[in-house]
Design a protein that fits this description.
By secondary structure, the protein is α+β, with helices and mostly antiparallel strands. The chain has 5 helices and 25 strands.
């Protein structure tokens, strides 16, 4: 996508420089009423150039090729916003980790070992952990099992003999012998099952394997995280702030640079963690059924509105670019082919719009589409 866009920019600028002059096409307006810059009939243009005062000369044909659109800025009120750093975390009710309770060797499940991105169902067997005792402990278990087998065989013969003498021996002796036989049988089964036993690892929820760190034959320790299963449609965003009073003023929120996702505040912690207060948001797509473009652990910037109003000029986020000094600027159209960079101060409103609080006037015609292309002209 970036390569195609860069190629398109290069072609547009090259055509404008090669032609040098062109006859104009009628002016047009965008779908929202913004002006689509086009030359007047019969206008003669010069080449692309960065002028000594920092402004840019853009020929009419180049403006049309670059699809530059401008809009007369109008001042209005908007909700104040605040930017919070955060990251995407797992929803504890729609995800889980699969860990080994005891150490052992990994054996594949009935369908083999799952891989990252594979869909699984709740309760599905993912793998087995074959337990192995130390040689000394294993020898003790085996010797104890042999003794129990011998004792069980003697107890079984004793019960059989007493049952054949039923009526001549007390009933309590027969019951005691049967009880001892049952105890020895249960102990034999328990110790026999512990030798060469294996642990079954199952999926805690239905979803997608987000992390898979198990291969056949791998030796794992107790509590090692082998798999992580999540529901990609249900994730949380955890943001942090140093102001304990902020959660009471937070309203709607969005993610900077991630359009199509809205956030709903679930709550804020009541204890500081590393000097900051965690705020938990639930991420939801704007359109139901749309895949969530987020991954667990992804760092994000949360733009949250607060219950305050500010005055400024609301513009698309792409209207604000950076100059060579890394200052935020907008491009103002001063004449048919001349654009002037104007330093501004702004605040983000959501993922797609910003509000310029200083640097603009009510009569400025601001470039709202194609500003990054103008900034590349040298």
């Amino acid at each position: 996508m970036i390569r195609q866009r860069t190629h398109g920019i290069a072609v547009a600028i090259a055509i404008a420089l090669h032609l040098g002059s062109a006859f104009a096409a009628p002016g047009a307006h965008g779908p929202n009423g913004e002006h689509l810059d086009a030359p007047g009939s019969g206008t003669t243009t010069s080449g692309l150039a960065r002028l000594p005062d920092g402004s840019v000369q853009v020929p009419m044909l180049a403006q049309r090729r670059m699809a530059i659109r401008t809009l007369i800025a109008s001042e209005s009120d908007a909700n104040a916003t605040i930017e919070l750093s955060g990251r995407v975390v797992m929803d504890p009710n729609a995800g889980g980790r699969v860990q080994a309770v005891h150490g052992g060797r990994i054996d594949p499940g009935p369908a083999g070992l799952p891989v990252a991105g594979q869909t699984v169902r709740r309760g599905e067997v993912l793998a087995y952990v074959q337990h192995h005792a130390e040689p000394y402990a294993l020898a003790n278990q085996q010797s104890q099992l042999a003794e129990l087998r011998s004792s069980r065989a003697l107890a079984a013969r004793r019960v059989q003999r007493l049952e054949s003498l039923e009526g001549t021996v007390p009933r309590k002796d027969i019951d005691a012998a049967r009880s001892e036989l049952q105890s020895l049988t249960a102990r034999e089964k328990s110790i026999g099952a512990s030798i060469g036993s294996r642990e079954t690892l199952t999926s805690p929820v239905s979803g997608v394997i987000a992390r898979a760190d198990a291969v056949a034959g791998q030796i794992v320790e107790a509590r090692d995280v082998l798999f992580e299963v999540i529901d990609p449609a249900r994730v949380l965003v955890e943001a942090t702030t140093a102001d304990p009073a902020l959660p009471a003023r937070v309203g709607d929120a969005s993610l900077q640079g991630v359009p199509g996702v809205r956030l709903k505040l679930l709550g804020a912690a009541r204890s500081l963690r590393d000097g900051v207060l965690p705020l938990t948001f639930r991420a939801q797509p704007d359109k139901a059924g749309t895949p969530m473009p987020l991954a667990i652990g992804q760092p994000v910037t949360v733009v949250a509105s607060i219950n305050e109003r500010i005055k400024g000029f609301v513009l698309p986020a792409q209207a604000v670019v950076r100059n060579s000094s890394n200052e935020p600027i907008v491009w103002i159209k001063s004449s048919a082919e001349r654009y002037i960079p104007q330093p501004v101060q702004y605040r983000a409103l959501d993922a797609a719009t910003v509000v310029v609080t200083q640097g603009l006037g009510a009569d400025n015609r601001v470039v709202v589409q194609g500003a990054p292309l103008i900034a590349q002209i040298r």
